[in-house]
Amino acid sequence: RSTLFPYTTLFRSLELIYPRSFRDLNGDGVGDLNGITLKMDYLSDLGVDAIWISPFFTSPMTDLGYDVADYQNVDPVFGGLDDFRMLLDEAHARDIKVMIDLVPCHTSDQHPWFVESRSGRDNPKRDWYVWRDGNDGHEPNNWVSLAGGKSWTFDADSGQYYLHSFLPTQPDLNWDNPEVRLAIKDVVRFWFDMGVDGMRVDAIWGISKDPELRDDTVNYDFHGDSNSYGAYIHDHCKHGPHFQEYLHELASVCDEYDDKQMVFEFYPDERLGDIWRQYHDVIHVHPKATAFFMEHRQNDWHGEHTGWNIMNYLEATGENTPFFCLGNHDQPRVTSRLGLPRSRALQFLNLLCPGVSVMYYGDEIGMEDVDLTQHDAQDGFHHSLQDDRNRARTPMQWNSSRYAGFANVLPWLPVHPNRKQVNVAKETKDPGSLLWLCRKLLELRHELPILRHGTMEKLDTGNGFVLGFRRQLDGQQLQIYINFADSAQTVWLPETGRVIIGTNPDIHVDGDVLQLPGYGGVLIDIK
Ligand code: GLC
Question: Which ligand 1 atom minimizes the distance to the CA of 166?
Answer without folding.
Answer: 6
